[in-house]
Amino acid sequence: MREVTIICRLESRNGLAFYQRLHDELPKRGIGVVAAHTAQKRKDLIRAVRSAVKAQAETIVVVGGDGSQTAAVSEIAHTKSTLAVVPAGTGNSFALSIGIKDFESALEAIAAGSEERIDVGVLNGTYFANFATVGLLAGAAEETSRPLKRIVGPVAYGVSFMRSLLRSKPFKLHVSWESGVLDIETYQAIVANGRYFGWQPLTPDAGVHSGQLAFFAVEGVSRADALKTSTALLRGDQVKLEGAHYFSARKIQIKTEPKQQLDIDGHALGKTPAKFKVETKALRVLVP
Questions:
Q1: CA of 278: how far to CAs of 64, 85, 91, 92, 108, in Å?
Q2: What is the chain's alpha carbon radius of gyration, rounded to the nearest angstrom?
Q3: With contact defined as beta carbons under 8 Å apart, do 144 and 269 qualify?
Q4: Exposed (0-12), middle (13-18) or buried (19+): which is 181, by Cβ within 10 Å?
Q5: Domain at 3-114: CATH code
């Protein structure tokens, strides 16, 4: 019988509701809940996950959005514990990247799924689950309030994006990787470990089993360029844009002028310069 420890981020959009449903549904499927914790803040969730790993928990169920999953990944990577993702946030791109679309598919993964080893990204020494952003998108993510996300859902990101766009300016972006160098002016850049940015694949090759990170940016110095890029990301046709640059690599270095905000899955992580790398098969996860 599989035994699990449940850790729920209460600030996530559907956290409490899904936490309660897990307590109802898991015993019906023969899953033993050995411990359950709720966490109000990110630091509380990290502390709870760390304790579960130290206690050699077999499976740690994390109920929350991308930010909560990234916080958990930093503690679970390279351990014997397995992460089970329950997507309860506004954006759940990492869950999609491992085949979990909703609560039901998360429940299926916990009850009858299989374990896989997947890649994780590392930015300036910090693990991240799905994607990191540089510039405009990072600033917009930092400004998006939790109360607004709970009320209007994904629309909250759009509101924050427009506010951030009005204050943002293009910057010089220098990118280097194993086989190339890129110098452009842009408003934003994305480096992904997972496949999805929002609900669309970031690049054709992006994925948690690729052994590489995916890079994407579009050259442009007007706010119209930035808005066009973000709209294309919602549609999923961003790689077709004029001035689009994308590639995959194991290590990526980014410098900007001036310095730009960095963000991992909705969590601010200082400013550029940025050193990225991928650690292959570093995380155990349950998939449907």
A1: 23, 20, 22, 21, 28
A2: 18
A3: no
A4: exposed
A5: 3.40.50.10330
Task: Please state which CATH number belongs to domain 127-281.
Answer: 2.60.200.40
Locate the domains of the chain by residue range. Answer: 3-114, 127-281
Q: Give the pLDDT band of residue 96 (cuts 50, 70, 90).
A: very high
Q: What is the pTM of this model?
A: 0.89
**For 37-53, what is each residue's pLDDT tens digit?**
999 999 999 999 999 99
- Name residue, tokens 């160098």: 181
pLDDT tens for each residue of 58-67: 999 999 999 9
- Identify whether the C-beta of residue 272 lies closer than 8 Å to the C-beta of residue 262: yes
Contact 191, 214 (CB under 8 A): yes
* 140: amino acid identity, one letter: A
Measured torsion, CA atoms of residues 273, 279, 285, 287, in degrees rounded to the nearest 10 = 90
Residue partners of 87: CB distance under 8 A and separation at least 6: 65, 94, 95, 96, 100, 101, 102, 103, 106
Identify the CA nearest to 214 among candidates 187, 242, 233, 186. Answer: 233
pLDDT grade for 244, boundaries at 50, 70 and 90: very high
